[in-house]
Write a structure and sequence with these properties.
The chain has about 220 residues and is an alpha/beta fold. It folds into 2 domains: about 130 residues, Rossmann fold; about 80 residues, Penicillin-binding protein 1b fold (2-Layer Sandwich). About 40% of the residues lie in helices and about 20% in strands. The chain has a 6-stranded mixed beta sheet, with no helix packed on it. It has a 3-stranded parallel beta sheet with strand order 1-3-2, with helices on both faces. Helix 1 packs across helix 3. It is elongated. The two termini are about 35 Å apart.
Length: about 220
């Protein structure tokens, strides 16, 4: 596949034309004659040449998912993201899930950190109203570091404000609990929930744990 990519890049002179047009401030350019996986190859090659965050917009979620699956085979998967949204409100509600929400949050967090990436998004995603970058970073991204002091009441209020539900025991994404000096949080973007143990108001340890057995797993880096 990499050899095919190189072959494609060498013979597609239009790519340099598109890049030149982009650098000169052209807002619209037409590229035609690409079908099936040729589109994915062209997008992957363009991304590698630009070396900048790139957003690809598709007509719908089905096309976005297909393109995303192709690009994962052509580019480092850690740099390719899908922002999944559906075209119809009713359909969006019907398929709403923690997994899709987690994907959207992961994309936004990645953008806030200014890390280079390739994002595939259906046109419906452009219609979503999102908070400003500074507000997203200040309100929704929480870092836990060993030795750091936290205001417990402020943390609990913040978790509730961004949509987490307080439970007696954490069993699913989007939940948190407080038992003595132990805070359990299940972020939507993590495969396992996180357990924060406090010594007074200081973070003593941060570990993943199994939501079924409630037993601690490895330490979180």
């Amino acid at each position: 596949m990499l050899g095919l990519n190189k072959f494609f890049e060498k013979r597609l002179e239009e790519m340099d034309t598109v890049l030149d047009g982009y650098e000169s401030g052209m807002k619209q350019q037409l590229v035609s004659g690409l079908t099936a996986s040729a589109k994915s190859l062209w997008v992957a090659s363009l991304y590698r040449k630009r070396q900048k965050t790139t957003v690809i917009v598709t007509h719908n979620l089905y096309q976005a998912q297909k393109l995303y699956n192709d690009l994962e085979e052509m580019i480092d998967s850690s740099e390719v993201y899908l922002y999944p949204t559906n075209d119809l409100i009713a359909s969006e509600i019907a398929v709403a899930s923690p997994e899709l929400l987690a994907q959207r949050i992961d994309v936004l967090n990645h953008l806030v950190e200014n890390q280079k990436c390739l994002i595939v998004i259906p046109v419906a995603g452009l219609k979503r109203l999102l908070p400003p970058r500074y507000l997203w970073k200040a309100s929704l991204i929480i870092h836990f570091e060993i030795g750091k002091r936290i205001n417990l009441e402020t943390l609990l209020q913040k978790l509730t404000a961004v949509g987490y539900e307080r439970e007696s025991m954490v069993t699913g994404p989007g939940q948190f609990s407080l038992r003595g000096g132990i805070i359990d949080i299940y972020p939507l973007t993590e495969q396992n929930p996180i357990r924060i143990e406090l010594f007074d108001d200081e973070i003593d340890s941060v570990r993943y744990f199994d939501s079924d057995t409630q037993r601690s797993l490895e330490k979180k880096n």
